[in-house]
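Hey, weird one. I pasted the Protein-L-isoaspartate O-methyltransferase sequence into the form twice and got a warning about non-standard characters only the second time. First submission, copied straight from the form history:
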Amino acid sequence: MRAKLKDGEVARVEIMPSSISLLHSVSAIAYGFRYRAPLKHTCLFYTHQLHTLQPPNVPLFSSSFCRVPNPNFFTGNSLFSRMEHFLSGSGINRNKGMIEQLQRYGVIKSKKVTEIMETVDRGLFVPEGTPAYIDSPMSIGYNATISAPHMHAMCLELLEDRLQPGMHALDVGSGTGYLTACFALMVGPQGRAVGVEHIPELVAWSTKNVERSAAAPLLKEGSLSLHVGDGRKGWPEHAPYDAIHVGAAAADVPQDLIDQLKPGGRMVIPVGTFFQDLKVIDKNLDGSISVRSETSVRYVPLTSREAQLKGT
């Protein structure tokens, strides 16, 4: 719907479930939404300040949304129909189209991140038959998700300075392996990219995904590795890490991850239970810690394998 507001007024409007898919789109990004996974059990209502500067051709809409039982519930929406038409053609062209959309909305600014996301085709890292290039999180089974492309782009940009050739990177909750592959290409064969995931089936699947991608040589050479393990404990073998990414929300930042962060390194981690913030944690050269909040997010919880499989 459209809303006509005076400058400084606040909109709080509830959206019906049939309109929920709008919030998965890049238009939602333009208003500051950062979204990883479907909400559970209840509705979450946001109050959002509407700004006078609008992205091109994007209508104003409500900033409230509820859980959708199927996280892929967006196929009938006209906005996504237009986007899927725009992203038609080969997988490479659709991947590039996705990136161009994220650039258009100011999500991707870095030339290096653009290069990496163009090189690693997202279509190789999602379940077969799902719309890989739509800016939406999607279920990958086992009560896990792959993040929306704008979240991957944001995390890559936040960590870019710590993903230089020769550096070490850790991806906690590596899921389908997409972001681990991006890390590996950024740190190169002289560096080390490690993915940790506690669902063995996902590790096996992510390995196959990487083998089909541009990061395959790094997996074969050993500078990229994917492991079954409790990501809350990190992966000490290749610590300390210049960059740590956590793909699920922790109630508190795990001390093991802080300990494995190199002085001068950075960790990006969602923190919170129902209300969550994407935290940027820098370990200073003297070992002290600086923390700032980047944005509000909604991720699945960082928990044990058993609790995740139970969906608790």
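That's the output from the first submission. The warning seems to come from a hidden character in my clipboard, not from the data itself. The two ends are 35 Å apart (CA to CA).
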